[in-house]
Amino acid sequence: MTLLQLNFLNKHFGAVAALDGVHLTATSGSRTAIVGPSGCGKTTLLRLIAGFETPDAGEILLDGHRIADADAQVPAHLRNIGIVAQDGCLFPHLSVVDNIGFGLKAERAVKLARASELLDMVGLDQAMLARKPDQLSGGQQQRVALARALARKPRLMLLDEPFSALDTGLRAATRKAVTEVLSTAGITTILVTHDQGEALAFADQLAVMRGGRFVQVGHPREVYERPVDAATAVFLGEAVLLPAVVTAGRAQTPLGVLAVEDLEFRGQTTVLLRPEQISVRRVEGGEGDGVITDLVFGGSTCNVCLTLGGTEAFSFRIDVPSRDIRSAGDRVAIGVDGPAHIFP
What was the pLDDT predicted at 312? Predict the structure, then answer.
């Protein structure tokens, strides 16, 4: 069942088109991640859904009811939408229990019971109920912010870069905890993030935004493995882009002949390989498919520049396990697992 539907939303700030015909649907209980470069319109879209901005054109439907269009909109406080921002936005002068219960119209005992229940849900100790925000770590503050957003049992949760200020390890742990809480509660969620890995791990629907539009929407694995264009491929992760001539399901490339999934395409194009499809093995003597012309050691992996031989040299960079790669100048054999993706 569709909970949220965005129909051809437009929003301008002066001469700048922040959103240009955005269309999106999210089913009940689903998790959608929106990714894209800075300035592409992600936060503007969340602000329209939350009710902080009014669309110039198009409409927003929540549970089948129109909550915003160019002529009228339901006020933000009546939409029953929760939102967690990048810094949590906790009230510094209030305790955890008062932050969580801030929007509840109930007696103190009821607020305390609800705050206690939500603190358990987000994995925090009951002893924190009396603390102020400055007595909490960054990850704890974000969990309290989530608990506050959950207190009024929202139909929809909006997460605007909620983990970006956290350290790497804490970020992963907090994201996992938040995902579990939202999944258990069955709350439809929209996440905006600059972290592609975070989006891929969090969502069951991924929307890639560029220039105020969604250039591709789909299951995260589908979008990652079969991006609509090279710009989307590169944005979502490491990508090896190879010039190719394709005939009958085979692509002639600088890496040799590669299989492709499209058996109908004929002609010159670009094909995509993801780094996990490529294996690199050091070889002795003058054998091998190419040579490492630059190497940056990074612990478990090395970022290397591989230059292939042939009549026209072709180079690309890739992260490879460092156990067998020693230095620039090493000759390597290169293997490819699985078909390449064609950009028609």
Answer: 62
Q: CATH: 3.30.70.20, 3.40.50.300, 3.30.420.10, 3.40.640.10. Which one for 2-230?
A: 3.40.50.300
Instruction: Quickly tell me which residue has 């700030």 as its tokens.
Output: 13
User: Where along the chain do its domains lie?
Assistant: 2-230, 238-343
Are the beta carbons of 342 and 271 closer than 8 angstroms?
yes
pLDDT tens readout for residues 286-303: 678 889 999 999 898 889
Answer for the pair 32, 205: CB distance below 8 angstroms, yes or no: yes
Q: Is the pTM of the predicted complex or chain greater than 0.85?
A: yes
Distance, CA of 120 to CA of 278 (rounded, Å): 44
SS3 155: coil
How do residues 241-265 score in pLDDT, each as one tens digit? 999 999 989 999 999 999 998 889 9
Rounded to whole angstroms, the Cα distance separating 167 from 15 reads 38
Over residues 105-137, the pLDDT tens digits come to 777 887 888 888 888 877 788 888 888 988 888
E-strand stretches of the chain: 2-13, 16-27, 31-35, 57-62, 65-69, 81-84, 156-160, 188-193, 205-210, 213-218, 240-247, 250-253, 256-259, 267-273, 278-283, 290-297, 301-308, 314-321, 331-336, 341-343
